[in-house]
């Protein structure tokens, strides 16, 4: 048996546990989601999420250990998301991890959730290694990073306002698709014309940074104008056009980042990396620029613990250990984890 890491993830509305071997082989990965319950409220209610984590964490751990066919004694390190995320939600995973470490005398490794998302690529392609460029797009993040090594990341650009996932979720709700909006908007787009509506494509001078608040406002204005005249938006066309506009901006900046860095290895990470339009566009970009591409497996795009156990494995191997007084860090930043 290789090095086994137990991963625990509870930063938002998924309680997830996983056991990974040597950072790459998934022995077991379980996800208990409260998204269905949260959808009744149109979004994540932090207090509800925390309570769901409390109920789900122990059965999720037990089932993961059973499926992986290992005991806590076999585990080499317990890796847990320490941030960013909802503080009450994070604390459930962090407390569970600490309890296992205290009782079983195992090392604790706190993991940055976004570094976990990047590791979805390590779980997808066993040969995928730094250096590479990664477009990180989730509910709270839109960034391009140059991943020079497992522990050496540099930020090339980020969003000045909304994240791409946030921009998807907001408009999906307004056009009646509900929560979680991103996947529903993606599904609806399949029947729509991506050129039926046009949206602005903002560019910030001398920067690759993203800004999605303008495009979101333009979408809201279009919807309001149509509705104020008694009309209704063609939901499929609108979803397809809006998705096309956002994905085009993301891919344009990634193309610029390839030119800027000369890096010809590219990948995606974060919940929005499940988006079919974004996946198609990055494939086209890779083809056009002769770049090598890794597309994370769909099951590892959105929140899961396998990615946390993988990212944690690389931290563990380079000697990172956290004390049992480790806290949860709701607004943990890249620079706090990777020093740049
Ligand atoms: O990474 P994630 O599961 O949680 C965060 O760390 O934020 O990402 C969730 C985000 C949500 O905004 C969700 O709408 C978006 O990812 N998302 C998608 C798709 N699947 C998830 N957005 C567009 N298309 C999808 N297929
Ligand atoms: Zn996430």
Topology:
Layout: E1 4-9, E2 14-21, E3 25-33, H1 35-39, H2 46-68, E4 77-83, H3 87-104, E5 108-112, H4 113-124, E6 132-137, E7 142-149, E8 152-158, H5 164-174, H6 181-189, H7 213-228, H8 235-261, E9 265-269, H9 276-289, E10 292-294, H10 306-317, H11 334-338
The protein binds 5'-O-[(R)-(carboxyoxy)(hydroxy)phosphoryl]adenosine and zinc ion (ZN).
What does the model show?
The protein is 45% helix and 19% strand. By secondary structure, the protein is of the alpha/beta class. The protein folds into two domains: 155 residues, Nucleotidyltransferase, domain 5 (2-Layer Sandwich), CATH 3.30.420; 169 residues, 2-Layer Sandwich (Nucleotidyltransferase, domain 5). The strands form two sheets. It has a five-stranded mixed β-sheet with strand order 3-2-1-4-5, sandwiched between helices. The model has no long low-confidence stretch (mean pLDDT 96). The site of zinc ion has 6 residues, from helix 4.
Q: Whole-Å distance between the termini?
A: 35 Å
Under CATH at level 1, the class of the largest domain stands as: Alpha Beta
Question: Shape, please?
Answer: globular
CATH architecture label of the largest domain: 2-Layer Sandwich
Read across the widest sheet, the strand sequence of neighbours is 3-2-1-4-5
Q: Identify the bound ligands.
A: 5'-O-[(R)-(carboxyoxy)(hydroxy)phosphoryl]adenosine, zinc ion
